Input
Amino acid sequence: MGDNQSSMKRNLEIISIMIRKALWAQIILAMILGLSVGLLLSPEGGALVSKDMSLAIASWLKLPGSIFLNLIQMVVIPLIISSIILGICSSGDPDYLKRVGLRIFPYFLGTTTIAVSIGVVLALLIEPGAYIDSNLLSSSGAQASAIGIKALETTSAPEQIAALIPTNITEANIKRNMLQIVIFSIIVGVAVMSLSKEKMQPFLSFGESIQEIALKIVSWAMLLAPYAVFGLLADITIRVGFEAIVGVSVYVGTVLLGLISLLAFYLLIVKFVAKKNILSFIKSVREVQLLAFSTSSSAAVMPLSMKTATQKLNVKPAISKFIVPLGATVNMDGTALYQVVAALFLTQVYGIDLSAIEVIILVLTTVGASIGSPSTPGVGIVILATILQGLGIPPSGIALIIGVDRILDMCRTTVNVTGDLTACSVMNKLLEEPTTKQTAKA
Output
């Protein structure tokens, strides 16, 4: 009996130490507590308090999460700009930069296309729209006015291409146009690399200082991470409850199945292209995945992603500093998959039959719309409104899925950041120097 008690005490001590030192353990504990508190206070769950009181409590519980996200968003743009410029210049070789660019952009385009294709196949096979309750459809119009989502204005392809070059970086900053900021950073980085070493060094020192300041602020924000996770999950559980999920459960299941399939595809890439052990890769990226799941923001986990890529996946700093900020803007495979499933789901709900050509156009539109989407929570819904415009679906249809969007947002953000770290591992392997390979074989 005494041995059992001492053994249990040792196990509890080990768990306690692990929770204190391991961020992933703290986040898991915070997730469990947040979901539990949310269910107890939810009007559809434990209903320990009135609905108005539960919403008031939810707002206060969310406060640490809001502060956490705001701190990250405060420094994310200077961090992206400095990281990309330093990543480009740290290679010190224009040919190396060219090799990275010629590989990473086709890679991003290819994985996004595969992600969208997975979504199309699952949505057409499962037909989640056929399971929708007609009562939800009839009430969606009344809900739409309360949501206040407006479809984005459409512009011609030449105008969109020209708009990639920011005429005013301050305006791009204010509008959070991350793709413009990334392109600005790449152009500046290439220009800096073309300077002489004497002229380049002061600018690089300034960039390194900016990056260090941003990372210091991020490290302060990370102290709030477990509390932020607890508050954000408690808040969403109180507000959403289970009723909204049950109503569109087949749709939710289709999206989740697609994201799991995409995650499995990434692991195959890790195994056969990056030549890494799958279990080791999963263990290395779990903290990033948990934080991404909890915050629904690729930008919020970008510093942790770069640190994980460099320290745990042994990716060269020049690659991680370039690909992670770029991937947080361009490589949004989980978002693209979700958007195409949601669009096809709503076409099925409203009885709109799409031809093969229209499905292909939807795929191309989704791939284009996902590239450059801001890495902030809830942005997928806004982009989806644009896609729906071209399919003849009323924007009010979004009211059917808005209730479960935050939950799916958490899942697709997890997949997005996993895709970025997979890309880092792949590029690190593909750009491995021949001498390194020969040494490894020897």
